[in-house]
Write a structure and sequence with these properties.
By secondary structure, the protein is of the alpha/beta class. It folds into 4 domains: about 80 residues, no CATH class; about 110 residues, Nucleic acid-binding proteins (OB fold (Dihydrolipoamide Acetyltransferase, E2P)), CATH 2.40.50.140; about 190 residues, Rossmann fold (3-Layer(aba) Sandwich), CATH 3.40.50.300; about 160 residues, 3-Layer(aba) Sandwich (Rossmann fold). About 35% of the residues lie in helices and about 20% in strands. The protein is built from 23 helices and 21 strands. The strands form 4 sheets. The protein has a 7-stranded parallel β-sheet, with helices on both faces. Strands 16-21-20-17-19-18 form a 6-stranded parallel β-sheet, with helices on both faces. Helix 7 crosses helix 23 and helix 9 packs parallel to helix 10. The longest helix is centred in the middle third of the chain and has 26 residues. The two termini are about 35 Å apart.
Length: about 700
Amino acid sequence: MRLSLTDPLSAMAGVGPRTAAVLAGSGLSTVADLLWHLPSRWEDRACPLSLREVVAGDVVTVCGEVVDLRVRRARSRLTIVEAAVSDGESSLAVVWFNQPYLATSLRVGQRLWLHGPAGPGRGWGVELRSPEWEKERDDGEAVHHGRIVPVYRRIGEVSGRRLRSLMARILASLDRTFPDPLVGLLPGGATLSLSEALAETHFPTAPAGLDERRELLQQLARRTTPAQRRLAQQELLGLAVTLEQAREARRRQHAVACRVTDEIRARARAALPFRLTQAQRRVLREIVTDLQRTAPMARLLHGDVGSGKTVVAALATLVVAECGAQVAIMAPTELLAQQHHASFTRLLAPTPHRPALLVGGLPEGEKRKVREGLARGSIAVVVGTHALFQEATGFARLGLVVIDEQHRFGVAQRQRLVAKGDAPHLLVMTATPIPRSLALTLYGDLEMSVLDELPPGRSPVRTVVRDGRARDRVMEFVRREVAEGGQAYWVVPFIEDSETLSARAIASHAQEIQRGLAGVSVGVLHGRLPAEEREQVMAAFLAGEIEVLCATTVIEVGVDVPRASVMVIENAERFGLAQLHQLRGRVGRGSRASYCVLLLGEECGAQARERVARFASLTDGFAVAEEDFRQRGPGEFTGMRQWGRADLAVADLRIHLVELQWARSVAGQWARRGRLQQLAALLGGLGGRSVGPA
């Protein structure tokens, strides 16, 4: 029976209802689904060692004839199958534990391929312990040995070995004559079809030479073989098509078209606390132009910390509110929502619009009052957290949604808030600069505006790296800064003591800092404090009543204290570079010279030291983002929290930038020609796995 990509797995021989149900539970229902379940790694089992070369401690592949076979039971009722195999020159003991079926599956005189760990024998010599085995076949078509072998992660009760057998059976039965329309679109004259790419990715053709096989294994691990690049092209094209479809769907909607009058311009000028930078003026023009159109705006505003995104968002809010529509501003945490509420209240004070606050920590009566005002339309501007898109919250005329720190929300959460209105405009903000290659993928359905200029008066932050031994000197430095009118953050990575990590708890840190800074007021802030207490601590720090704030990364974004001039980060090697940059951005917001001190832990290794030192040498947030992306990859940006689906099976944004650019170009060309649905249908005909995020 020939299989097609769209056939259900239950159509395969050997896949019963139980196995089909287990695979379906992991989202694998069709032949294409299973073929896109790619190996986690590969092993070279192409050429067996002679038995005399087997050394205890190695994982080896050997081949030999069974010359002895026996079964015995240990006192613990454990069944032990013992065998001896010979290659004509040497023999080797083999033992399997608790696999009694082997006594009938194997017999003396058979030739076996074996792969597994070698250990010291019970009496002398070495033995193989519970190795994978496979009978040698005359046709040479072994699945588990004699080739470069794919290794799969277990899916429920379906073992990796069983998956390997299923993959081999599918590829042997797959009808490879189906048309592959992508071949003609591929860059560089590539002609590798989907079926060929899948076959070569699962079961790569093994070169004869050992060095060549090692090089192939390295390429497979790096995802750079021609077959893997072909699969990456298809995945990324599917993602690009999905993003273009989102753009097209949005263009067909009708949003509130705002009018910008002289009165609105006068109120905007009154709301401005300072002169806008050139970058802010450019970005504001882009946003206001979008707001005046009937098609809903969908724009990403990103820039370095302190580049003035809040002011731009407040002016956009004013334009929409003046046109009689409502604005919802969503932040990821209550602390940041409270900060935004204070900032928007201050900026909009010269106008009739008073922002409301809607967060989970509010008393029920206050939340009910805000929700009633939003439903009636008497509240024009609201700042909040996830409470904004809960079912109980409704809007009379939602015209603009502003989402801050978008990377902390998923696309589905973004859409739930947008769905509260009738095609509202959307402004997505992030204070984490994003590498352009990543931004094109994550936010390909959004237009991009970049604030690449800091407001005047921002002090450069000097960053230094110090060992933990320098803690006393750092404390003296902090004491001097406080005495001269400054304030300091002292950031620790964890709330509670950890036995497995050397980072100490924030409580013990605060006590130590208080002892070392006798006479200096020290406060403590972390995410597990009640919301009211967090608000009181931050208010005291802002007022200068607290001079040193010992905190976790809850102060990573949104906190604006102009007098803060020192940021000390304990165990800096435990933070990502982008997070370090966010923390560093909390200082340098006033006229004082500012400093960021990166304290390394006692167990910090050479590689981590080099990484932190590299960060200290960078000041531009986009350069930091590129370095973080290069070192760590996209992380959760492309994971469940962003797309609501599994990670890309093979495409890696650090490796497949050329393929990404090609995919965006092709999808854009087909969209401009009005043929995007045709391209989506072509991809769907190749199994549907690669049609992008849900």
